[in-house]
Amino acid sequence: MAEFMELEAQDGVRMTWNVVPGTKEEAGNCVVPVSAIYTPIKPFPNMLVLPYAPLRCRNCSSVLNPFCVMDFAAKIWICPFCFHRSHFPAHYASVSEENLPAELFPQYTTIEYKSPREAACLQSVFMFVIDTSIIEEEMAFLKSALSQVIGLFPDNSLVGLITFGTLVHLHEIGFSTAPKTYVFKGSKDVSKGQLLEQMGCFLNKPKPLTGVRDGLSSESIARFLLPASECEFAINSVLEELQKDPWPIPADQRASRSTGTALSVAASLLGACFPGSGARIMAFLGGPSTEGPGAIVSKNLSEPIRSHKDLDKDSAPHYHKAIKFYETLAKQLVHQGHVLDLFACAVDQVGVAELKVVVERTGGFVVLAESFGHSVFKDTLRRVFQSGDKGLGLSSNGIFEVNCSKDLKVQGVLGPCASLEKRSPLCSDTIIGQGNTSAWKMCGLDQATSLCLVFDIVRKDIPDATVQSSSSQFYFQFLTFYQHSSGEMRLRVTTLSRRWVAGPGSIQDLISGFDQDAAAAAMARLVSFKMEIEAEFDPIRWLDKALIHICSRFGDYQKDTPSSFSLSPRFSIFPQFMFHLRRSQFVQVFNNSPDETAYFRMILNRENVANSVVMIQPSLVSYSFQSVPEPALLDVTAIAADRILLLDSYFTVVIFHGSTIAQWRKAGYHDLPEHQAFAQLLQAPRDDADAIINERFPVPRLVICDQHGSQARFLLAKLNPSASCNSDGHRPGGDIIFTDDVSFEVFLDHLQRLAVQ
Ligand SMILES: [Zn+2]
């Protein structure tokens, strides 16, 4: 695995198969698709940024790279993708074996280019959309969190403000003498034309002058979007005045909340002011949308908010209509190049499941918390605006493109992006995620954003041995054109080569190139995607079939002898990953609300391999007087009265005190000078949890609990039920899990029996 991590450290990419199955049939037998999880703008300490434009192949427009074949005498380079021969232009005339341009150095498989022209001073724009149909206490939390980040806005940014409840208020914060707002009815969608008309922009200036955007002069824009340096007072005074939606709510009704219209007004305003340049709508939602387009539930409290069961039975009356509305909004934002970030803070569901399409297509953030007062929300919001080394490296206006060898095709991308519908011979007929294109829009992306590309091997038969020996490499090139957080336009180029194999004797090669962590991450995205789009899809059956197939193909065994079964180290933890994936929040959706499921999947779909693995199979560390902190098996037998456990399941970090530890803590032993060692034992997992929380985005929830306490369920739900109430062998001081899940031992036993058949 170390070698796969080295490749990731060089190029930001992990592939499921690093030795690629060479034919369609071979790839089918490998079960896990050939895919790459790629972090397009992962920061590298020694990233070379070339101050000139890249040289491109005239035929396929791939970029000159270390895998090109050179003919120095003729000053020609040969493209590894289409074999086109290109002459070097005049300014490359001095190129020779001894005098290579940097982009041909073998170590620069990943490199960046920046535009030679002076970087235009591109502003970032933030449009805050704030829900006011929330209780006073939540309003106070939200105001305090917002006023804390106002001072952190980037210097060159512009800020605007929309508030909504029953009505939608667009605040004219640039109006110097008195606060002024434009009010829109929440129950009806507002088109861009209606918006502009109501704002009176056209009435004053019937003939827009040249240089104005979409009829809006810069003076008009300045009425609604203020430079960050000047907005602090204006925004603070609006926030101070901000009150809970004044409309009375009958006891049997939900608050009136026109989320869809508010987002639509925000999108249209940004579309009129800044089409094509980076802008983010940041929506702060404190409850379900109940009014106008995009409503997810009626105001009548007797109608419950849709559950997974309702969606399954297709009995959620507002769902499809809301999805349709948000799909249109997503298209509009992608077209404009703008992002929607969602901060959903409520005990109830707010409609994350319906809004997912907008957030995911535009590459926005999503945060789910119970309250605006919760650290998950407050700390995450602050992290968004943090600059420097701890910043997220927020970038915008990305376009992602792929080139690959002609025996490969692209089925699609699972991740935060939108198809640009660029049909090319590279597109596969089978589509996964955003497919049928070789270019994708990434309105918002940051240093962690990771896409999963799924490839198809299209070659039918094995070429004869002579051809195979001369060119048994597949090539991939990933091009990301984006606006760097500094404002510069950059192009990142990553070019990869992987050996392919086919025919008898290729199994050992395939095994040696299998990255089981990357495979688990890809399978998690794939199973989530299939659950969302395929009716009647049975995820457990699909995962089990895949695993059995893999084990019988790549395992070592004598036919019909389960006890002889073994797996190479390259595959050895893959069954465990699949066991935990089956039990995870991505597959067992009925334990969560549709909003939670949408949230978990959106985060999975944007994270790298290491973080995805933690989501699938949490990590567990044990602290005790007997030893230094050590990793523990994710099993109920890890629980002991005199131990502290630290569970990291990505979304939640749990510190679990065994019953004796909890007793000592309650008795205050850690405060006594003679029990210094106990104080240290208590503190160690806290420090480690803080380290995890400090570097993660969104900030995870911290749960501190005791054995037998009600919060202990956060740990128990993630443990292998090796000692469940229907098995004996209950140990004193340990714990049992009440479940009818199968344990990993039983699962593995079945697997071995089926694999050797
Ligand atoms: Zn080419």
TrEMBL record:
Residues 627-715 form the Gelsolin-like domain. Its main location: membrane. Keywords: Cytoplasm, Cytoplasmic vesicle, Endoplasmic reticulum, ER-Golgi transport, Membrane, Metal-binding, Protein transport, Transport, Zinc. Residues 396-501 form the Sec23/Sec24 beta-sandwich domain. Residues 124-385 form the Sec23/Sec24 trunk domain. Residues 54-92 form the Zinc finger Sec23/Sec24-type domain. It holds the Pfam family Sec23_helical. This is Protein transport protein SEC23. It comes from Gossypium darwinii.
